[in-house]
Amino acid sequence: MGDMIQTDVGGIWVERRGEGPDVLLVAGLSDPAEAWQAQLDGLSDRYRVTAYDNRGTGRTPLPEGPMSVPGMAEDAAAVLRALEIPAAHVMGFSGGSCIAQELALGHPRLVRSLVLMSTFARTDAYFRAMTGFWHWMAERAPDERAMLEAFFLWIYTPRAHADGTVDRIVEETLAFPYPQSVEAFQRQLEPFRTHDTLDRLSEITAPTLVLAGELDIAAPQRLGREVAERIPGARFEVLPGEAHQPFQEVPDTFNARVDAFWREVRARELRVES
Q: DSSP assignment, residue 179?
């Protein structure tokens, strides 16, 4: 069930499902909580899964003034506090993985473990050129459908374009009753373009799994590998044949992988406790 909750930083729309150890899902650019539908459905038999709309996405209003990744991490911390979650397995993808990095750095006690999907710690020239194109494409595309069809070339596999998956996602996005405005897309994009935690990642203490899609052109695996190399003890894995959002394209495989990681974290905690 979804609900607008009041936090100490304002109202934030939250979806919660299931019972068990707490999992916080942090979405990326433009994606509302529903982007995690396959995890809300597929993991809630074992976990209490919480997803939320970032500011300027879905039902959470766009703030006044410039946005920042540390500011969005404060929103994530506020969600955990408002829901009285002392610590959660935090999973973020793309821009949401940047938010998750800042959350782990700024509020380490709230982060039981980290899964960083399609992640990066510092943007490069290719990334800045790509996202610069996205910025003006949102404004100048002939219509929303054309914008989505172009944008999704960076997001999903050729397989998903061929088998109708992307067509379905386009239709679902167009039918979503809380569309993101061009202004919100652009303002949310900017802080991710300048995200830089590279020299601070060594301070992260949470057990970390970094996942990259073999075919991801939006956040190429070289960027994820760089993140894993900087976080002490982090594990880096490439998902063969996958692109930017495998949690949507191959949810059963993805859910099984993160579930296995969280079980490992629990086993490690038990060994420490004993």
A: P
**Which amino acid makes up residue 120?**
F
Distance CA 189, CA 21 (A): 31
- What residue ranges do the domains of the chain occupy? 2-273
Give one DSSP letter per residue of 86-123, joined into a string.
S-EEEEEETHHHHHHHHHHHH-GGGEEEEEEES--SB-
| pLDDT tens, per residue, the chain with 274 residues | 789 999 998 899 999 999 999 999 999 999 999 999 999 999 999 999 999 999 999 999 999 888 999 999 999 999 999 999 999 999 999 999 999 999 999 999 999 999 999 999 999 999 999 999 999 999 999 999 999 999 999 999 999 999 999 999 999 999 999 999 999 999 999 999 999 999 999 999 999 999 999 999 999 999 999 999 999 999 999 999 999 999 999 999 999 999 999 999 999 999 998 8
- For residues 225 and 210, what is the distance between their CA atoms, to the nearest angstrom? 8
What CATH number has the domain spanning 2-273?
3.40.50.1820
| Placement of tokens 């038999």 in the chain | 45
